[in-house]
Amino acid sequence: MRETRSFSPPVVRPTLEVVRSHFETWRKRRRERSRIPETLWQAAAELCKEYPVYEVSRSLRLNYNGLKYRVLEATGERGRVVEKRPDFGFVRLDLGAPMTPTECWVEMEAPSGARMRMSFKGIPREFDPVQMSQTFWRQGR
User: Fold this and answer.
1) Average pLDDT along the chain, 141 residues, taken 10 residues at a time
2) What is the pLDDT of residue 24?
3) Which of 52, 111, 125, 130 could serve as a FRET partner for 37 with CA atoms 20 to 30 Å apart?
C-alpha cells in the first residue's frame, strides 16, 4: 500500500530588506498623508517575531508605539502586558550620612531686635531647624 502525504510548502517570511523595499515603494507612490495599508502593517508585525520591535520600527521608519500595539494585537497579549510586569513593591534606600560633611549657617533678626544664629554640621537629626525658626518668629507676637 502506498502512503500519500500532502505537500505543504514551507512558510517563507519576508526579510526585513524585502519589507523595507515594499514600504519605500508605497511611500514613493502614496498620496500625501495617506494611511499605511494594513498589509504593510501586518508584514511589519510579522517581522517582530524575528527582530525586536525597536529595530523593525527604526528600519521601516514606523511609529514604535503603533507597531508595538499591532504586534500585541496580533499575539492577543494587548490586555495582559501590564500583568507581566513584576511587582517590586516599595523599596526604601537609606543612604545614611552624606559622604562629605556639610555646613550651614542661619542668622535671623526679628523686628524687635532679637537675634538667632544656627550653625549645622552634617545632618541635624536631634532637632528640627524649621520648627526652631518658627518658634523664634512667633516669640515677638
Assistant:
1) 58 81 90 87 89 91 90 71 54 62 76 80 65 72 57
2) 92
3) 52
Q: Where do we find the cell 542668622? A: 107
* DSSP element (H, E) containing 43: helix 38-47
Domain of 60 in residue numbering reads as: 16-80
Is 73 found in the same domain as 20?
yes
H or E element in which residue 17 lies:
helix 16-29
Report pLDDT for 119: 79
Instruction: State the total domains in the chain.
Output: 2
The answer to whether residues 30 and 19 touch, using CB atoms and an 8 Å cutoff, is no
- Whether 89 maps to a domain, the answer reads no
Alpha-carbon span 104 to 58, nearest angstrom: 51
Nearest in space to 25 (alpha carbons), one of 40, 9, 43, 6: 40
pLDDT at 33: 81
